[in-house]
Amino acid sequence: MSFRLGIIGAGGIAAEHAKAAGALGIEIAGFCDVVPERAEQLAGQYPGAKAVEKVEDLLALKDMPAVAVTTPNCFHKPHAIAALEAGKDVFLEKPMGMDVAECDDIIDTMDKSGRIVQVNLICRNSPTALVVSDLIQAGRLGRIYHAKASWYRRRGIPGLGRWFTTRSQAGGGVLIDLGVHKIDLVMHLAGHPKALRASGHVTGKFGSPPEKYTYTEMWAGPPNLKGVFDVDDGAIGLVRFENDMTLEVNVTWAANLPGGVYPDGVALMGDKGGCFFELWGDRVMLATEEDGYLVDVKPHVAPEELWNGAWKRQYEMFTRAVVDRIRPQASAEDGRTVQAVLDALYRSSREGREVEVG
Ligand SMILES: NC(=O)c1ccc[n+]([C@@H]2O[C@H](COP(=O)([O-])OP(=O)(O)OC[C@H]3O[C@@H](n4cnc5c(N)ncnc54)[C@H](O)[C@@H]3O)[C@@H](O)[C@H]2O)c1
What we know:
Bound molecules: nicotinamide-adenine-dinucleotide
Number of strands: 15
Strand order of the largest sheet: 14-13-12-11-7-10-9-8-15
Shape: globular
């Protein structure tokens, strides 16, 4: 059950792809990056892996049925389409595209090519999300009527001043970056109800620090204080679903909010029970009723490396899709569904009113 994988883009998340794939015995055929040293640096860690600068050179490598696309968001569509047209299955980073029209183009090419696209909606495979999924399947929540999902960073703008904070390359800011995970996770756990309407508001307050940016976490850094920042670093949204379920989402890359005051995680309220769980921690709490008493249950989450365990499951799922030719659980259609909600929230914010989800 193995195959050779190429990786387009050799930045921060590409290293995670290679590590997870390599740990499962998937051979890394090569890396491609417009910055040659990045591809060379990663290729040096995987025996036999090539380092190339051009996507077409990577796609020309022999006996390589699949690629991971880990480039900035604006390249997801062209790189996914090039790979599909070259006959490759694609493990595509989130968000699937810059907007829903791009997702439709990818799906169109996927359908014509007969190849497979899996989107890296990795939060579905966090250990706590899996426990909650079991609780839901066992009927412990009943019908879910409301969800709250939040991810607060006090100062954690990724690559401030670089592609992550440039609308033409990222498509948006924290909403498209972190919101995509939270919204997809809630829809996934709730059984994929159809989103009907959305009301959103986004802000961008922390991207132009006068001379110094003090941060608590940094991804794809260091900050470039003279670079572009024209995206959101805070977003709120309310989404209404056809089954009367509502979702309230709050995500920030940066906020003036004392740490620990508001919990980071997902709360799901059902008519039989409710739960709260941290995404990348080990806390799951179930609020239920037993024998006429209100009871809080704390299921034990099996200790494992949180992040690495989720990555392992992502690549096991992709392997099954590639080898057995089955549609992956985190499918292109799911990537498109969550992108439609993101598009609606951004549109709502621009227009200052609730809008239909397209
Ligand atoms: N699933 C997750 O949890 C998760 C986490 C982080 C990032 N991501 C996603 O992964 C993608 C990449 O993010 P990152 O943090 O690795 O960014 P990054 O900036 O660290 O890496 C991107 C790499 O792509 C290269 N690149 C840019 N244009 C290219 C081109 N035309 N051809 C080949 N290479 C090119 C860059 O030189 C860089 O090395 C983004 O879409 C991001 O949203 C997902």
